[in-house]
Each structure stands twice: as C-alpha cells, then as structure tokens.
Amino acid sequence: MSLWKLALLIALFNLMTFGNGPVLIPLLQTHLVDGARVLTEDQLLYAFTIARVTPGQANFYVASLGYMLYGMPGAIVATLAIILPGYVMIPLLYGFEHLRDSRWIEGFTNGLMVTSVGLILAAVVQIARGTLTQPIAWVVLIATLITTQLLKWNIFVVLAAATCLGLLLKWLL
Q1: Contact criterion met (CB below 8 Å) for 6 and 66
Q2: Which residues contact 141 (CB under 8 A, 6 or more apart)?
Q3: At how many degrees (to 10) do helices 155-172 and 41-53 cross?
Q4: 13 CB contacts (<8 Å, ≥6 apart)?
Q5: Where are the domains of the chain?
Q6: CA 70 to chain centre
Q7: Which candidate, 21, 116, 17, places its Cα nearest to that of 59?
Q8: Cβ within 8 Å of residue 19, ≥6 positions away
Q9: Residue 66 · residue 172 · CB < 8 Å
Q10: Which residue in 64, 115, 72, 83 sits closest to 11, CA to CA?
Q11: Can you tell me the distance from the alpha carbon of 74 to that of 52, in angstroms, rounded to the nearest whole number?
Q12: Element housing 154 (H / E)
C-alpha cells in the first residue's frame, strides 16, 4: 500500500464516520490488518491506546499508523488526511443548520450513531477473540471494566493499574 493510498483511505473513512475516531478502528482493521496486512492487530491497538490516554483528538492515532508504515512523512500525511476532511465539511454545516429540525435528518443522524456503536462493538468482539485467549487477559479485562465503569477511575490510573496487574499475574503464574 502506497502512502497516498493510505492517506486516501484515512480521509475517506474519516468522512464516512464523521471524524469518530473509535469507529475508524474496524474499518482500518479490515483494510490495513486483515486486507493489506501492512499492520498487525497489536500495532493498531497500540496506536489507538496511546491516542486514548494522551490529550487531543481521538482519531489522531492514525498519525502513529502513518509513522509505523512510512516514518515521519507518513505521520504528517496521515495527520493531514484526518484533519482536512473536517475543513471540507465546515461549509456543509451551514446547510445542516437549516435542515436540523427535519425528521429525515434526525433519523439519519440517529442511524449513524447506532451504526457507530455497532461498528465499535464488532471491532471489540473481533479483537477480543484474538486477545482474550488466556485467563490472565480475562482477569485484566474484568479489572479494567470494573475500574472504568463502576469505580470511574481516571484512564491513566486504570492503564497503569491494569499493566501492573498483568505483569504481576504473569510473574506469579
């Protein structure tokens, strides 16, 4: 896959998902991991995880993907590919404001949200099948869900605690 094909793919997916970073994951996984095989699932998840725990847009992890594939030029082009479609859509927002009360637009927007959730869930299931293969992984997953969803811990604390838990369990077992 060429750098320009990667940029076009990122820009197209960004437009399709209206800049929703997590929804890009299943699309990128299908094309870059499963299809072209230019990235591993671990590389994709690593880039996404780093983006989730650092400040900034949720979809800037594509810069890491560009860097992994093409170095600094890849990071720059991937960043531009994720940013520029947003500027293309700005003039469309003017028209959207006039149509916002339309039942068709409301239905379309609600459909996009539900589709986004479905795509994210599909990616989670697919990634879980390949990742949750050992009891330690399940323990870390359950601990992560409890600390993020029930206890509402800070994401940095959860990441550090889950990493330490995984290392400890691996060392003990």
Answers
A1: yes
A2: 128, 132
A3: 140
A4: 24, 27, 28
A5: 3-131, 133-173
A6: 20
A7: 21
A8: 57, 59, 82, 85, 86
A9: no
A10: 83
A11: 20
A12: none
Q: How far apart are CA 118 and CA 88, in angstroms?
A: 26
**In the structure encoding, which two tokens stand for residue 68, read together?**
């992994």
Q: List, in sequence order, the alpha helices (H) in 37-102.
A: 41-53, 61-99
Torsion from C-alpha of 56, 59, 63, 65, nearest 10 degrees: 140
What 3-state class would DSSP assign to 68? helix
Quote the tokens at residue 99: 């149509």
Instruction: Name, in order, each residue with C-beta under 8 angstroms of 71's C-beta and a sequence gap of 6 or more.
Output: none
Q: Are 70 and 81 in contact (CB under 8 A)?
A: no
Q: How far apart are CA 94 and CA 145, in angstroms?
A: 40
Q: Copy the structure tokens of residue 35.
A: 């299809």
pTM (predicted TM-score): 0.67
Residue at 118: amino acid letter: G
CB 66 within 8 A of CB 74: yes
Distance, CA of 28 to CA of 36 (rounded, Å): 10
Assign residue 146 a region: left if phi > 0, alpha if psi is -120 to 50, beta otherwise?
A: alpha
From first CA to last CA, the distance across the chain in angstroms is: 41
For the chain (length 173 residues), average pLDDT per consecutive 10?
93 80 84 93 88 78 93 95 83 73 82 84 84 93 96 92 94 91
